[in-house]
Amino acid sequence: MEPFLRKRLTFLSFFWDKIWPAGAPDDSMPRFPDAGTDAEPEPPAAEPRSPPARAQLFRALYDFTARCAAELSVRRGDRLYALKEDGHYIFARRLSGPPSAGLVPVAYVAKATPETLSDQPWYFSGISRTEAQQLLLSPANAPGAFLVRPSESSHGDYSLSVRAQAKVRHYRISTAADGGLYLQKGRLFSSLEELLTYYKANWKLIQNPLLQPCVPQQPPRQDEWERPHSEFTLRRRLGEGYFGEVWEGVWRGSVPVAVKVIRSADMKLADLAKEIQTLKSLRHERLIRLHAVCSAGEPVYIVTELMRKGNLQAFLGSPEGQALSPPLLLSCARQVAEGMSYLEERRIVHRDLAARNVLVGDDLACKVADFGLARLLKDDIYSPSSGSKIPVKWTAPEAANYRIFSQKSDVWSFGVLLYEVFSYGQCPYEGMSNHETLQQIMRGYRLPRPAACPAEVYLLMLECWQDSPEERPAFAVLQEKLGAICSCLHPALM
What we know:
Elements: H1 2-8, H2 13-19, H3 35-38, E1 56-60, E2 79-86, E3 89-94, E4 100-105, E5 109-111, H4 129-136, E6 145-150, E7 158-164, E8 167-175, E9 181-182, H5 192-201, E10 212-213, E11 232-240, E12 245-251, E13 255-262, H6 269-281, E14 290-294, E15 300-305, H7 312-317, H8 319-322, H9 326-345, E16 348-349, E17 358-360, E18 366-368, E19 375-376, H10 397-402, H11 407-422, H12 434-442, H13 455-464, H14 475-489
Parallel strand pairs: 6-10
Antiparallel strand pairs: 1-2, 1-5, 2-3, 3-4, 6-7, 7-8, 8-9, 11-12, 12-13, 13-15, 14-15, 16-19, 17-18
């Protein structure tokens, strides 16, 4: 009889639902007006009604916007089936909205049960009266924010907590003998959802409007640079730097990258944190570009763009580098000066500027790299500990003798880099030990002009090697002078 009447007299569907509530569809009961924003419909009939054997049901606690094609955007309240859990992410299929799947950070989801109650944005299980007050009075919530929680004093009942200006009011939701729920005797409701719908429309009965579900406390902001190790595949070892190995790798199976692999034994964690923060803050076409960081667990990965021709020192010694004309060498030097001028503006000292720490890409694009020794300057100089390793042949006398580094000591190193460039990668002060080099410099000795070096460029080298740091030119001046020399020798390179 029930199917026949429902089919023939559909306009009386509300009446049939009252008579045969068990046969009513899932969405026939009155719903809380705001639920359409955060709650989600049941999956389409064509989809499976139960999860795969290995799947786990989750609920999104917060909004999350995908930052790449592999991630899945979700809204608070979305239901998800986690097909795979992998460290800080789950690979999940979304049940609400258009079918889609992807990675979602675990900090943004929680395991859920199939019951409707756990999916509601206004239901907070496992929190106390005090915690409810703290949440509702937080800056994220305005007057009219509310939540429902299990009652602390009466097992099986609930509490409705509502923010009213600068305080929170709590109301007991009791359970009647027949299972109905009520705030006031004589007004029974079959579900919390129905009760909230009624009191939202008739809020004067409790003297507090129910405007929007409580916004939960957000998790710590996820670092946009942080990625899991599993996204990177190391292919070929390129060399070993100051703090670890450098590898050619692939990101997500397709993007070529360079990966600096660092272990805690190779570097102090405080130094590593400073290096990463410095890398994140820098953006310039003449500096190596950071792609990602993997700092959760060891080894730590610092992932940058891949410069296929390797470091400038090795490139200059290769057949391709040996064939470069002086104007092309000048172009390489000018690009380095441009990158260092940017660091100068940011009050950052490199401390290890040398051809080995400049990387070369296609079309002879040169970029300054390896900020493992870089430090943001709070004053005009930086003094490291006396036990620091120093590349003496590239280091200014005041830095080698007194451990005082500044932007002007970087200028001295740039002069040595100019020598490397125009000698096609020859080691400076060849045949001298570090001690002999420092002694000769203090006596006034300076490196000779390489055969391929224009006289104007050698004069710039000598300016970089002034005894007094104050007399050395700024990188902005060096960039300008190199540009002028380059335009005279080969205007097509400008």
